[in-house]
Amino acid sequence: IMWTSLRKTLLISQTGLNASVVFFGFVYWSQSGEILLGTSLVVATFGGFMDGIYAVSLYTAGAAACSENTGMIISTIDLMWGIGHMLGSVSGGALVKLWAYPLPFFVLGSIGLVVIPLIATRKKIPGEEKKTKCEGPMLEESQSQHASYYRLLLNPAFAVDIGSMMLSWVIMAFNEPTLQPYLATQFKMDSTQVGVVFMVQYASYTIGSLSSAILCSLKMETFFGFFGHVLTIIAYLILGPAPFISCEPTLWMVYLAQVFIGVGTAAQFACHYSHALKVAGKRGYPDTIRTISFVSSVVFSSLMTVAIATSPVAGYLAETFGYRNGSMALLGVILIWLPATFLQWIQSLCAEKRRRRLYVLERPTSSSRELGYI
């Protein structure tokens, strides 16, 4: 973004991402299994790379355009992500039944490519003007004070935010490859019924994103981030259920757990993302594209790294120890991280009380005005 511009980065990444989606459709006609595997790996690598750049650019543009309430815009983008997953689950299956495997990739990729000219011809990209907000002496002073943005990684509050967002993606990456075979074997569900279970999760994710937007606007992001963390703990206690709970697996527990996972992970992501940007501002980093894009790049590089690593580990745990026992490893990680989010919430409450106390002490009293002291 800093080498080119926000507009060019959005255009390049969106073009590459949607082109890779279209190419995935052509993989269907591969002549052999080796060609299919090799081509899929190349296209997936390229598409994942472009997806990461696109996500950073999109969230940077949104946060820069609405810096007064970043939680609202981040939650809104996240809400669209959840709705997209729901629609994709339904429309993808319908398009495959309409013709064949490549059709969803051709349709969705083409729709994404059609939108690109609208971005290219748009006179103004939201947040683009912030690139020149600090120039001249102000920029030199800012760069001298903050020569390395990587110092922000050493800030405990920022680290808690990044860790909490990483955990939200770990939970989703663990849930998807392990729950499907468990439902198929335990409850004899077919693919359509399993799809409904995951639709409940994504529907709940949209509700969690909407709730995050409201609570972030009320400056309660640390509370809702902690609350979302607690919901994920409850989810993995009842999803299996946990081996130490003397209860047989039931479908209502599975559905309720998906609700908690959806709302909880949405709260973890949106609220801690918003708080991470606030931490950067409180540490003195300027409110510019450079700062926002750095935070966004740290967020998504961390998320994609843990998502890639989690899926094979999750599959190994579920196959080796069974779903109920294997999911306890994830529950243990969530429990270990719980004190960090709790302390962050308490610290924010104390900071808010100190701010209000200082405001009351510094505010001129009516008696002082009457006596002519002020």
TrEMBL record:
SUPFAM superfamilies: MFS general substrate transporter
Keyword Transmembrane helix applies: yes
InterPro entries, A to Z: MFS, MFS_trans_sf, MFS_Vesicular_Transporter
Transmembrane segments: 9-29, 35-59, 98-120, 152-174, 194-216, 223-245, 251-271, 292-314, 326-346
GO molecular function: transmembrane transporter activity
Assigned keywords, A-Z: Membrane, Transmembrane, Transmembrane helix, Transport
Domain of life the protein comes from: Eukaryota
Keyword Transmembrane helix belongs to the record: yes
Protein name as annotated: Vesicular amine transporter, putative
